[in-house]
Amino acid sequence: MAKQSLILGYGVSGHGAEKLLLARKKSFSIWDDSPEHSSKNPDIKSLNRQNYDEVIVSPGISPSHPIVVKAIEEKIPLYTELDLALKENKKPVIAITGTNGKSTTTAMITHGLRELGHSVMMAGNIGTPLAEYTAKGESADFIVLELSSYQLHYLHKHPLSCVVFTNFSADHDAWHGSHVSYFQAKWKVLDFVKESGHAVVGADVLKTAKNLHFSTPPDLNVESLSSGSNADFAAKVLEIATKCTREKARSAILTFKGLAHRIELLGAIKSKPVWNDSKATNFESTLYAIQNVNARPFVLLLGGRLKNNDFSLLQNLDVKLRKDIAHIYTFGESHKKLEEALSNQYPLTSFANLNDLLDDVLPKLRRNPQPLLFSPGGSSFDEFRNFADRGDFFRARIAASLD
Questions:
Q1: How many CB atoms neighbour CB 11 within 10 A?
Q2: How far apart are CA 306 and CA 234, in angstroms?
Q3: Mind giving me the DSSP string for 111-135?
Q4: Angle at which helices 354-367 and 387-399 pack, to 10 degrees?
């Protein structure tokens, strides 16, 4: 009897894997921990090399998950949906990772390549799963992948034309087991660059690598960027990938409009702008938003599930930026911790959840208009499915208050 694949996790990535396996007429089973699917899961005792030749692990599945542990015990290889697709690919692949800004950089590179006349498939941690494109037989001049540390943890080596490592800070340390392991998961992408390829790496990332005793692969073409801006990373990749001039690369990204949930301008309340930055799931992202919005002083909404209890980025803002924050409203699982950490430095009001916060703050902004920045700094999983779900909720709630 032919051996099966086991898809572990039936989210976006799992659905993509399913479509490619169906297209290849490969037998498979699905394991998902959601209540609506758990009764359909195969017997874990059947997970052995006689029945299965691979487990396709969805991003975010913990290394301690019983299926992952059992697969390793049974010496069944672990793959990702990206592995299934990439082993069939012959087109140039550009991969982007980093703690913050990788989605915007990925989208900006994709936009720039299209502006320069190239077809692109954008996938990975953004857009359509690459396996779904592959199942449909679609192709393009370039594949541009956003790679999270969760994906990189399980991803096997594939030849990449160019990789980008934008920046690094504490974020998913707990999931990976340590700060070093989190960095290692991202740093391994440099080992995937093919012989004629390039790596574009933030200068601070290279400093972190040196401090953690990681070295760049020998003979790798590494370009170090000190500015750290998404536009600079994107422009450099366009120069490398298309061999165009710097001016042409810059021009290609000028028309990029930005991403949903990343400092997304939703409109205005009484002529004062409202930004949805739900994708800010750590304080580094929130700090970036604080520094880059163009109307001040503003009201800041912080909350969600914190990834650590280090509030120093917000506590140690320089005086000018601190004055730009007119009032902080906190919400969700972290609302009390944020109140305790920040109420001595900022006017602050705390709410148990985002809905109650908006019930209070929106009428106030109609009476006393101020710019509003929704940049939580914590993950969404205390109240929502993901950052997009949270951002959509925020957008829907404020819609009636917009001019």
A1: 16
A2: 30
A3: HHHHHTT--EEEEESSSS-HHHHHH
A4: 40
- Which residues, in sequence order, are bridge partners of residue 5? 28, 54
Structure tokens at 216: 């760049």
The one-letter amino acid code at 112 reads G
CB atoms near residue 349 (< 10 Å) = 17
DSSP state of 305: B
- Strands (E) located in 284-386: 298-303, 325-331, 348-350, 372-377
| CA 127 – CA 107 distance, rounded (Å) | 9
CA distance 313 to 318: 10
The amino acid that residue 246 corresponds to is R
Q: Return the H-helix or E-strand segment holding 7.
A: strand 4-8
CA 339-341-347 angle, to 5 degrees, is 55
Burial of 20 (0-12, 13-18, 19+ CB in 10 A): buried
Nearest of 66, 98, 43, 393 to residue 228 by alpha carbon: 98
User: For 194, what's the count of Cα atoms within 13 Å in the CB-facing half-sphere?
Assistant: 12
pLDDT by residue for the chain (403 residues), tens only, comes to 679 999 999 999 999 999 999 999 999 999 999 988 888 999 999 999 999 999 999 998 999 999 999 999 999 999 999 999 999 999 999 999 998 889 999 999 999 999 999 999 999 999 999 999 999 999 999 999 999 999 999 999 999 999 999 999 878 888 899 999 999 999 999 999 999 999 999 999 999 999 999 999 999 999 999 977 899 999 999 999 999 999 999 999 999 988 899 999 999 999 999 999 999 999 989 998 999 898 999 999 999 999 888 899 999 998 889 999 999 999 999 999 999 999 999 999 999 999 999 999 999 999 999 999 999 999 999 999 999 999 999 999 999 999 9
Sheet with 325-331, edge to edge strand ranges = 264-269, 272-276, 372-377, 298-303, 325-331, 348-350
What is the pTM for the complete model shown?
0.82
